[in-house]
Amino acid sequence: MNLRWLPAALLGLGIVWLPAMAQEKAAEKPKDTPKEAPKDAPKDTPKEAPKDAPKDTPKEAPKDAPKEAPKDAPKVAPKDAPKEAPKTAPAAGAKVKLAWTFTKDKTFYQTMTTTTKQELVVQGNKVNQEQKQAFVFAWTPIKQEGDTWTLKQKIESVEMAIDIGGTKIEYNSKNAAGPGNPLSEFFKALVGAEFTVVLDAKENKIIKVLDREEFVKKLVNANPAMQPLLSGILDEKAFIDMSEPTFRVVPNKEVAVGDTWELKNTLKLGPIGSYVSEYKYTYSGKADALDKISIAATLKYEPGSSSSGALPFKIEKATLESTKATGEVLFDTAKGRPSKSSMLMEVKGNLTIDISGSKTPVELTQSQTTTTETSDTKPGA
Predict the structure, then answer these.
(1) Does residue 215 fall inside a structural domain?
(2) Of 272, 265, 276, which is closest to residue 303 (Cα–Cα)?
(3) Coil vs helix vs strand at 344
(4) How many domains does the chain divide into?
(5) Cα–Cα nearest to 129, from 3, 230, 274, 23
(6) In this structure, is residue 315 part of a structural domain?
(7) Cα–Cα nearest to 322, from 295, 349, 294
């Protein structure tokens, strides 16, 4: 399950504090840097260059330069090195099979790091929000039946740092003795949580997610006040929609450079709303020993129908969509899984928030960067 969406939903709760937290813009411009640079450069450069260069260069040049210079010049080969990279690309028309490969009981790990930066304009004031999160997941294939694989996913560790208009919330499961905060118990409940997914490995589609009820119950026990929200956003369909993009990055077939495949994904998070994403994947050839897949995507947000008491606010209207969404996956065909991936998503638009009958317009600009790295051993072990 791709849990970058869950903390994003929690971050959205900060909206109820925005009118009170709106702060004035404070930006200081450097005063000295532009003035000092021009003063030194013109004085020193012309003085020393003419004195030494003309006197020394002619004396030594006739002895060694004419014969040796042409021989030594090609040694600046590193400049040409990048031009060698295309040699690793497959020949025209050559194909490579991009498909997941699983081995029973052989665990692999994924470290997913996401940084989200938001600028919100509320009642004429700007509020900056920033969220950094890092999850380590363990995936273990436990059973194969024909084209169907059953895999167990475990959350090994969680690291979170949220800054909402200067109010900071931090948590690191590797430092249990760290300072507590209102969401510490909630984050703590994530660590060690396990999910079982049943995957159609031929189509890379998730058929079923098990253990969902136990997971939701664990989160509710950690923070009972969140039960209405969690019950509304974490149904089985949401779990599938959060997990499936992990496996759909490859088409499970042979492809040549320039071949494309697509994925449309609608993630419904109850009263929070829905995220409609469309991904276009293009095979771009070899990158050293790995195979590069380029990603072009779009994302559009649609508000939820009603709050139903699950949230202290309601997103009444929204025109929010991506302005830029690109990324890449480096796939390891020898191991049959992605080695690393990166994705940049920039979103901009307007929201109307209804808080207890008071409607507040909000302008939102958001940038989110997500990277994932896969390994055979547990990171930090």
Answers:
(1) yes
(2) 272
(3) strand
(4) 1
(5) 23
(6) yes
(7) 349
| Domain harbouring 116, CATH code | 2.30.230
What DSSP state is assigned to residue 79? Answer: G
pLDDT averaged over consecutive 10-residue blocks of the chain (381 residues)?
Answer: 49 41 38 44 44 44 45 46 45 84 97 95 90 96 96 94 88 76 80 93 92 87 80 83 89 96 90 91 97 97 71 84 97 97 96 87 95 94 66
User: Does a structural domain hold residue 355?
Assistant: yes
| DSSP-assigned letter for residue 61 | H
Q: What angle do CA 183, 209, 206 make, to 5 degrees?
A: 120
Q: Two tokens at 334?
A: 């020898």
Rounded distance between C-alpha atoms, residue 254 and residue 249, angstroms: 14
Tokens 């490995």, residue located: 201
How many whole angstroms separate alpha carbon 283 and alpha carbon 100?
A: 15
Name the residue range of residue 259's domain: 5-18+97-374
Q: Determine if residue 79 is left, alpha or beta; phi over 0 gives left, psi from -120 to 50 gives alpha, anything else beta.
A: alpha
Q: What's the chain's length in residues?
A: 381
